[in-house]
Design brief:
Layout: E1 2-8, E2 13-20, E3 23-30, E4 37-43, H1 49-65, E5 69-73, H2 85-99, H3 106-132, E6 137-145, H4 148-157, E7 161-167, H5 175-180, E8 187-192, H6 200-209, E9 215-220, H7 229-243
Parallel strand pairs: 4-5, 4-6, 6-7, 7-8, 8-9
Antiparallel strand pairs: 1-2, 2-3, 3-5
Helix pairs in contact: 2-3, 3-4
Length: 244
């Protein structure tokens, strides 16, 4: 891991950009701390770190204020990272289906999501290795937001993640439902009831499939971008319970 830029934000948060091989990322930590801070990995949609930065830094500020470190990485095929042809074709097929008002087929969802999960999860785990080796950062680890299928896979394969806050706002391949049954860590799942781009029934079925004994569904009225402020406060309390 190589740090490439650093700035101190006005609320005592240290923001450092880094690269891990060819993967860009950002780490937010308290400017000063007496003990290692538990870590929250901030997931996000594949829209690019630069575009997502305002929302990510807002989430990170809240995490640091609650006593955590926070970090994120650029997803494969997004931002300034190289594209791959299959993913670009899947995105084009998705756009055509949505613009034509047609159902999004399982084939499109699989082509769009499964390669992303297969590539992103090993990178998240490599980033976690590097982050936990840094002074001032320690266990336990939580995962928050992002592409829900990535969160599912991480919850299954990464034992250092002990709790996850997931946003039911993205397309989910059918095979991920079987993986969801293997998830056992505590879950806090957010669902926007009127999310125009999300299949509500599929989201409810996915929640039902999770194998966790502790799982909570927070459903709020409104569309994809209409998440109420108090929903973030509920998620913060969830992580406070499980990471402290």
């Amino acid at each position: 891991m190589r740090f490439t830029a650093e700035q101190r934000l006005d609320d005592g948060v240290l923001e450092r950009e880094f690269t891990l091989g060819e993967i860009p990322g950002i780490l937010w930590t308290p400017a000063s701390a007496s003990v290692p801070a538990p870590l929250i990995l901030l997931g996000h949609p594949p829209l690019g770190l630069r575009r997502m930065h305002p929302r990510l830094v807002a989430r990170a500020r809240h995490a640091v204020a609650d006593g955590f470190a926070a970090a994120t990485i650029e997803l494969p095929g997004s931002g300034e990272r190289p594209r791959w042809a299959a993913a670009e074709r899947a995105r084009a097929d998705l756009r055509r289906a949505v613009e034509a008002g047609e159902p999004v087929s399982d084939e499109i969802v699989d082509a769009l999501v499964l390669p992303l999960v297969d590539r992103a999860v090993p990178e998240w785990r490599a980033a976690l290795d590097a982050l936990l080796s840094l002074p001032g950062i320690g266990s336990p680890v939580g995962y928050s937001g992002g592409v829900i299928s990535v969160g599912i896979r991480l919850a299954v394969v990464e034992p250092r993640i002990v709790a996850a806050g997931l946003f039911a706002g993205s397309l989910v391949p059918r095979t991920m439902f079987e993986e969801a049954r293997r998830v056992t860590i505590p879950l806090h799942v957010l669902l926007q009831w009127d999310d125009e781009g999300n299949d509500r029934k599929a989201a409810l079925d996915l929640f039902d499939a999770f194998g966790s004994r502790e799982k909570t569904l927070h459903a709020n009225m409104g569309g994809h971008t209409g998440v109420p402020q108090f929903a973030g406060e509920d998620a913060a309390r969830f992580f406070a319970r499980h990471l402290r």
